[in-house]
Description:
The chain is 40% helix and 16% strand. The chain has an eight-stranded mixed β-sheet with strand order 1-2-4-3-5-6-7-8, with helices on both faces. The two termini are 23 Å apart.
Amino acid sequence: xxxxxxxxxxxxxxxxxxxxxxxxxxxxxxxxxxxxxxxxxxxxxxxxxxxxxxxxxxxxxxxxxxxxxxxxxxxxxxxxxxxxxxxxxxxxxxxxxxxxxxxxxxxxxxxxxxxxxxxxxxxxxxxxxxxxxxxxxxxxxxxxxxxxxxxxxxxxxxxxxxxxxxxxxxxxxxxxxxxxxxxxxxxxxxxxxxxxxxxxxxxxxxxxxxxxxxxxxxxxxxxxxxxxxxxxxxxxxxxxxxxxxxxxxxxxxxxxxxxxxxxxxxxxxxxxxxxxxxxxxxxxxxxxxxxxxxxxxxxxxxxxxxxxxxxxx
Length: 313
């Protein structure tokens, strides 16, 4: 069932802040602090409000203390405009030539930010769920800070290993495009609609009216397009995690769609192959989004995995 605008709205009055690692981080908690802690980390340029509320509410109802954060440079966390605008074409060329990339921050810095948020809410160890770039950050947490991670769920993410397939031409083009009128709301919404049309799940389409509401609410909370290129550079500069993933000992679940044009299924399969004992669940027709129709299925996978129960196929 589609959400109304009121149901999707998440008032900023519930947001909390912590100063750590030279930045201010915004986070939000749902549920009881006495319940099982679960940390949600969102992807490239996406705010903590991008986690669908029905999924958050389901996790709370299942007995989890859900913690979400705005990654640095995004949402209501510190913006890093002083780092300037990266030259992405040049970064791509340097990557192809295996030259070292300079970035104002890396994925590991964002992993340390996540730990700072756990410290702020008094959580010593949490189940960690990350989507896309958030999955990469979650992988680093599980590999480098095993004492803080009870389990790992990596959704539509990758190991970053060289040689894995990249985005389709259509996905790469639409991600790199900018609105013809970058300061006009309707043009910005139209651009985001084009992005969701390309990377969204073909078997589980989201109504345009719903997408428009989501985009408008996200823009009202924070609109900062510069974050995308800086976080893309952070991903590229952080390199492959294929060796690092072999250090992960926490129970690990990899969820990926077989129709993902941005991070193809082979990337999820490689992640699963790198993590000893991990479980891979492939969802037919799912692309690079979290469709409303799939939230019960994805939520059940996460809940069962955290509880050490059998994960549905």
